[in-house]
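Renewal narrative, Specific Aim 1. Our central claim is that a sequence can be written position by position from structural information alone. The example that follows is taken directly from our test logs and has not been curated for this report. It begins with the structure tokens describing the chain, in the order in which they were read.
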């Protein structure tokens, strides 16, 4: 949440940047296999990511 109480969408590095800006800290805990892992993600219909990509599903690292 931002100081206005509104949710702040952020993904990966963006979320990390928001955390630090708002006074949070980061702790690295990735192992060497992290770069090769992907996770399936379902994109909701009618959302901005779906409209931008035209996809309903994708894999992300």
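The sequence written for that structure reads:
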């Amino acid at each position: 949440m931002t100081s206005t109480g509104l949710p702040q969408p952020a993904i990966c590095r963006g979320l990390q940047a928001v955390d630090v800006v708002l006074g949070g800290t980061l702790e690295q805990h990735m192992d060497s296999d992290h770069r090769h892992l992907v996770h399936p993600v379902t994109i909701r219909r009618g959302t901005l990511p779906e409209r931008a990509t035209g996809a309903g599903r994708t894999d992300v690292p």
